[in-house]
């Protein structure tokens, strides 16, 4: 029916003067956009299949290709955008739930961009990280409430299990299945080289990666896929995933087509079966149940590993975090509504949850007001885009951040937001062997290491400018922040002053 | 505008003298010492802490209180009468000095908590005392307790420190230890309570510098029941020391390892046992690390600790002569009272100099 025709949102523009008909674009596009016309000895393309991943653009040897936003439009309407209208056409045709990937792209406020950092002038000196030590090492875990001394009066180490990181950034949970073997290997190797951690997500841990266990956080989510005693013991910490910023309140679904070979083995489910993670953990219907799971996991690992509880940033996040801080958990991870995903219902992703900056500020404050901030460390993600976001998050009160999308971009992701198709041309969010091998983990891990080293340098520069030479003196140091263009209520929640105050 | 309404960074001068044998000396020397560093303050605050000055009342808490008016005095005294047995009360003797004006009512009370009240509170005596002082300072408008230790007292005002000393007739007191502070705030507060030293129980701090970790330290310490009402560095440093020493039970040298922790690169070169010690303290008390420039002198019952920030961004010199130890920003401030020193040195950043009564000088040098 003609009404179902949707003009492509992006057009592939080929400069035929430059095109040498090498057919690289055709071979590189898993979506079948490009086609060779032998009779004309010419390339053609079907824009409607294009996801705008830029694989062909990046690999075209003569720079003959570019992708532009289409200027084809319905009659302009402030209320009914092209996107909204098209979604209705699609749903009227299919009767289905709209699916999306990666983080919420809609135009909500980005508070990090409305927060500015301080620097020293006259009354105290800035510190040059090239000349003086500048420390970014952090510990994650509970702090002791009292000290202990031995018979000679020496301090006894009474710390509970904790994580030690060279810088306050970790790679957030992305399962083997949602991303490729090579993507996982890149993350694992980079974490090891950097002295930080990556996270298995809910997909188990491929046996090849057990050797990176010292830099691995293993996740236990509602489907319990891939969870067994060796798995729990293989990492340095266990994360219970209660929620995800991209899709708070709902579970996960890895289609059977992706459950092949090693993925089936790692998840411990038969090939071709859908891996469905329920919305809630069916053994956790309230906070006291969470406590039981926390201690079950601690029992299973001899109380040697810190337990992280990851939640999505939702309206009541401060009260929820307060409950978790008393549940025996050592670390709380909060995922903001901009957090990424391999697949989520569009309406959920774009309309559920709250910004991480506000969630972080209110959780940190609530835990301090209740005197339980030392029970846990706070890790925030969704979305941290740069070293400046890291510094702002730490100053708001985070101990550490999780990055997912930024790490994938370092590996080549161009944010086409089509992960759910399974045809990632960059070899990241796919299990198609010919696509997976496009991501070389040898190069991938180095790019992640580069990105983190670059951020670390920038973090040190910003800290030095503020006259701070150790990251712990930045944690919760909200006086180093000022808001611009924020209203009184926003400033109050963030616990910061307005610029000029 | 006064302290508490706005955060005021300030530069400063500090000085301290202690006699290790506990022999008492007059306040004359400390006034002389701090007056040499006149240009390090700007007339907007000066003060002294004196230890061992009230031997006849040594078992009682000495409260020094500023009142803005008689109404505040009345409310405060009602509060004191409900909570304490007041052994003695009087105006603190002062003399008129040019340059010291607008003085509030300045009163001194020697008190001890009512046994029944104390038992009801389920607190130990010092915590009860600290809680009462916080109560007065936050709830009673116009009353401000600026000293509340045993056998010690703080004397402070708006003015140059040497004038403040004469104003309080400090030369008439005798103590085993004195510290002094001259203030150079970057705006013009006119409130006496905002001058330094800052004290809680027998802990007093004089401080020179502006710390960059302020809000991290403040928000952390407020979680343990402290209320930073003045928004000054000295206040938060005093609370950190009180918390770590009195509540947690760390020793002074351990506290120095927390607030001016050695750098990780330094720690990595230490013996394994030392590494473990520092790693433990830096992890367990990470929120009490202080960054940015500071030199501080901490007075406490039975001793004194001088400490610089980990990079030594502020000057501090220590001199020794016989049983006396002198500490000041500038050597001149020591030489003026003791030209012939046995030893003089500048401690490294983060290296505490701890002087205990009847003990030696604990220092790396």
UniProtKB/TrEMBL annotation, chain A:
Its EC number is 1.4.1.13. It is an enzyme of class 1 (oxidoreductase). One of its GO terms (biological process) is glutamate biosynthetic process. [4Fe-4S] cluster 1 binds at residues 19, 22, 25, 60. InterPro entries: 4Fe4S_Fe-S-bd, 4Fe4S_Fe_S_CS, Aldolase_TIM, GltB, GltB_archl_type, Glu_synthdom. Residues 10-39, 41-70 form the 4Fe-4S ferredoxin-type domain. Keywords: 4Fe-4S, Amino-acid biosynthesis, Glutamate biosynthesis, Iron, Iron-sulfur, Metal-binding, Oxidoreductase. PROSITE patterns: 4FE4S_FER_1, 4FE4S_FER_2. Pfam families: Fer4_7 (PF12838), Glu_synthase (PF01645). It comes from the Bacteria. [4Fe-4S] cluster 2 binds at residues 29, 50, 53, 56. It catalyses: 2 L-glutamate + NADP(+) = L-glutamine + 2-oxoglutarate + NADPH + H(+). One of its GO terms (molecular function) is 4 iron, 4 sulfur cluster binding. Belongs to the glutamate synthase family. This is glutamate synthase (NADPH). It comes from Herbinix hemicellulosilytica.
UniProtKB/TrEMBL annotation, chain B:
Pfam families: GATase_2 (PF00310). Coiled coil: none annotated. This is Glutamine amidotransferase type-2 domain-containing protein. InterPro entries: GATase_2_dom (IPR017932), Glu_synth_lsu_1 (IPR012375), Ntn_hydrolases_N (IPR029055). The lineage of its organism: Bacteria, Bacillati, Bacillota, Clostridia, Lachnospirales. It comes from the Bacteria. Transmembrane segments: none annotated. SUPFAM superfamilies: N-terminal nucleophile aminohydrolases (Ntn hydrolases). Residues 12-358 form the Glutamine amidotransferase type-2 domain. The active site is at residue 12.
């Amino acid at each position: 029916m003609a009404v179902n025709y949707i003009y492509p949102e992006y057009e592939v523009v080929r400069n035929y003067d430059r095109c040498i008909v090498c057919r690289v674009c055709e071979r590189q596009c898993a979506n079948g956009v490009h086609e060779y016309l032998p009779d004309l000895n010419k390339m053609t393309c079907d824009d409607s299949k294009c996801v705008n991943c830029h694989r062909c653009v990046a690999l075209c040897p003569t720079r003959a290709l570019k992708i532009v936003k289409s200027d084809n439009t319905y009659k302009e309407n402030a209320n009914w955008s092209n996107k909204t209208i098209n979604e209705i056409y699609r749903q009227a045709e299919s009767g289905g739930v709209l699916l999306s990937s990666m983080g919420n792209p809609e135009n909500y406020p980005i508070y990090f961009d409305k927060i500015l950092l301080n620097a020293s002038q006259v009354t105290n000196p800035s510190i040059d990280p090239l000349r003086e030590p500048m420390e970014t090492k952090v510990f994650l875990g509970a702090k002791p409430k009292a000290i202990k001394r031995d018979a000679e009066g020496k301090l006894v180490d009474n710390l509970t299990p904790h994580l030690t990181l060279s810088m306050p950034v970790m790679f957030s949970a992305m399962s083997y299945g949602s991303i490729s073997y090579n993507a996982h290997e890149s993350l694992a190797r980079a974490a090891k080289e950097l002295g930080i951690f990556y996270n298995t997500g809910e997909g188990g841990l491929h046996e090849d990666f057990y050797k990176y266990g010292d830099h691995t956080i293993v996740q236990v989510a509602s489907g319990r896929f891939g969870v067994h005693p060796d798995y729990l013991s293989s990492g340095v910490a266990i994360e219970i995933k209660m929620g995800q910023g991209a899709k708070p309140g709902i579970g996960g679904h890895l289609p059977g087509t992706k459950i092949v070979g090693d993925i089936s083995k790692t998840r411990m489910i038969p090939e071709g079966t859908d891996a469905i993670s329920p919305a809630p953990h069916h053994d956790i219907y309230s906070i006291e149940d969470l406590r039981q799971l926390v201690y079950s996991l601690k029992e299973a690992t001899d109380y040697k590993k810190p337990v992280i509880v990851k939640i999505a940033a939702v309206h009541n996040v401060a009260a929820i975090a307060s409950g978790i801080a008393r549940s025996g958990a050592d670390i709380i991870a909060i995922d903001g509504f901009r957090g990424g995903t391999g697949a989520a219902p569009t309406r959920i992703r774009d309309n559920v949850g709250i910004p991480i900056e506000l969630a972080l500020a209110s959780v940190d404050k609530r835990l301090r007001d209740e005197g339980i901030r030392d029970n846990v460390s706070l890790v925030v993600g969704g979305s941290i885009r740069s070293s400046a976001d890291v510094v702002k998050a730490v100053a708001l009160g985070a101990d550490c951040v999780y990055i997912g999308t930024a790490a994938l971009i370092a590996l080549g992701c161009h944010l086409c937001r089509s992960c759910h198709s399974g045809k990632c041309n960059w070899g990241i969010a796919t299990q198609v062997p010919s696509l997976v091998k496009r991501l070389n983990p040898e190069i991938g891990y180095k790019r992640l290491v580069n990105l983190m080293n670059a951020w670390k340098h920038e973090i040190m520069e910003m800290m030095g400018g503020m006259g701070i030479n150790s990251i712990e003196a930045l944690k919760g140091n909200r006086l180093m922040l000022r808001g611009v263009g924020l209203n009184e209520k926003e400033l109050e929640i963030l616990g910061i002053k307005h610029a000029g105050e | 505008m006064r302290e508490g309404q706005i955060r005021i960074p300030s530069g400063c001068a500090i000085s301290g003298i202690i006699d290790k044998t506990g022999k008492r000396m007059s306040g004359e020397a400390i006034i002389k010492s701090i007056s040499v560093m006149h240009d390090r303050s700007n007339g907007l605050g000066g003060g002294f802490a004196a230890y061992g000055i009230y031997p006849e009342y040594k078992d009682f808490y000495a409260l020094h209180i500023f009142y803005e008016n008689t109404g505040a005095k009345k409310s405060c005294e009602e509060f004191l009468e409900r909570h304490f047995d007041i052994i003695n009360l009087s105006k603190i003797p002062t003399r008129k000095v040019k340059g010291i004006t607008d003085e509030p009512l300045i009163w001194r009370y020697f008190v001890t908590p009512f046994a029944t009240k104390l038992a009801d509170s389920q607190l130990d005596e010092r915590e009860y005392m600290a809680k009462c002082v916080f109560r007065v300072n936050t709830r009673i408008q116009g009353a401000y307790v600026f000293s509340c230790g045993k056998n010690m007292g703080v004397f402070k005002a708006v003015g140059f420190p040497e004038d403040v000393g004469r104003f309080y007739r400090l030369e008439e007191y005798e103590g085993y230890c004195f510290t002094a502070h001259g203030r150079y705030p970057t705006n013009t507060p006119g409130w006496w309570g905002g001058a330094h030293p800052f004290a809680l129980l027998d802990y007093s701090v004089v401080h020179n510098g502006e710390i960059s970790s302020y809000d991290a330290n403040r928000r952390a310490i407020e979680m343990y029941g402290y209320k930073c009402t003045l928004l000054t560095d000295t206040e938060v440093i005093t609370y950190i020391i009180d918390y770590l020493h009195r509540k947690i039970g760390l020793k002074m040298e351990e506290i120095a390892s927390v607030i001016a922790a050695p750098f990780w690169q330094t720690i990595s070169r230490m013996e394994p046992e030392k590494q473990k010690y520092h790693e433990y303290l830096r992890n367990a008390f990470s929120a009490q690390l202080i960054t940015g420039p500071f030199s501080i002198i901490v007075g406490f019952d039975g001793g004194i600790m001088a400490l610089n920030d980990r990079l030594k961004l502020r000057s501090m010199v220590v001199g020794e002569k016989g049983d006396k130890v002198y500490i000041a920003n500038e050597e001149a401030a020591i030489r003026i009272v003791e030209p012939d020193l046995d030893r003089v040195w500048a401690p490294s950043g983060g290296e505490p100099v701890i002087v205990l009564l009847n003990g030696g000088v604990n220092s790396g040098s």
